[in-house]
Design the sequence.
């Protein structure tokens, strides 16, 4: 089979194909060899490797069985989800890989409950709304909800990370999906705050200009104590691993926590919202 030069950085699909080719060659297999092991044609393997054929969930699971990657963080099925979510902002798929092994996670959100704290129903409403706007397909909506569930499950481990969440008051005031969905979501926040490895604070409207962020921000502390920052706007995401630029963001996060309400006061506000009182 002809093998074109492939730039892994061109797209998630190109990275998938380049990695498949690399692992195949490391084992000394031809495309025909891999095709026989996976139950596909050599033409199919060539198409995926060259980035001309879109990988599927079934193909990815077969690749994982063949290369012994089932259930690992480096599985092709997990990478396929990154390919499938072509609408995800730049840097986010890579961020998620770090998130799964972080020892500390700091989140700040505006308007929407952070994904790691969303109930399935709340997440589904947001995904379906994106479908109605024509931003994603129904299939992508299903995958988006499933992908979020995987992120949440990755944090349930023997030694879970410490999770700090500071959310703008708009996150709990903005109704999403109706009263039933919203009440369950607010109840989920209360449950989250009761965990021994969490801290949840609401940044009230009244802090005004003392709010240090105007966009959502995610900060990770990895096992080696290095820091990663992921921030996004409506159209662009940015992953930053440079300590000189991430450290000031961490300082700004601490400053925000200082002016936000305590967890006890935040829980009281959430309960007031649940009861429909101002």
Sequence:
């Amino acid at each position: 089979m002809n093998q074109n030069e492939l730039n892994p950085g061109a797209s998630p699909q190109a990275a998938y194909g380049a990695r498949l080719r690399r692992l195949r060659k490391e084992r000394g297999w031809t495309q025909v060899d891999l095709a026989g092991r996976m139950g596909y044609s050599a033409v199919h393997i060539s198409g995926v490797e060259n980035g001309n054929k879109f990988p599927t969930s079934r193909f990815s699971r077969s690749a994982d069985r063949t290369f012994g990657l089932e259930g690992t963080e480096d599985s092709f099925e997990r990478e396929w989800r990154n390919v499938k979510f072509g609408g995800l902002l730049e840097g986010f798929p890579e961020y998620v890989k770090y998130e799964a092994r972080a020892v500390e996670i700091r989140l700040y959100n505006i308007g929407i409950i952070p994904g790691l704290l969303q109930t399935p129903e709340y997440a589904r409403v947001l995904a379906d709304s994106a479908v109605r706007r024509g931003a994603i397909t129904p299939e992508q909506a299903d995958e988006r909800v499933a992908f979020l569930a995987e992120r949440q499950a990755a944090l349930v481990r023997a030694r879970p990370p410490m999770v700090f969440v500071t959310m703008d008051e708009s996150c709990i005031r903005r109704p999403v999906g109706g009263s039933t969905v919203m009440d369950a979501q607010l109840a989920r926040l209360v449950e989250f705050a009761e965990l021994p490895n969490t801290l949840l604070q609401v940044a009230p409207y009244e802090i005004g200009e003392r709010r240090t962020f105007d966009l959502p921000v995610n900060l990770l502390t990895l096992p080696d104590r290095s820091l990663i920052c992921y921030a996004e706007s409506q159209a662009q995401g940015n992953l930053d691993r440079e300590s000189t630029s991430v450290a000031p963001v961490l300082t700004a996060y601490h400053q925000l926590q200082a002016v936000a309400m305590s967890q006890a006061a935040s829980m009281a506000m959430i309960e007031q919202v649940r009861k429909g009182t101002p």
Q: What stands out?
A: The mean pLDDT is 89. DSSP finds twelve helices and six strands in the chain.
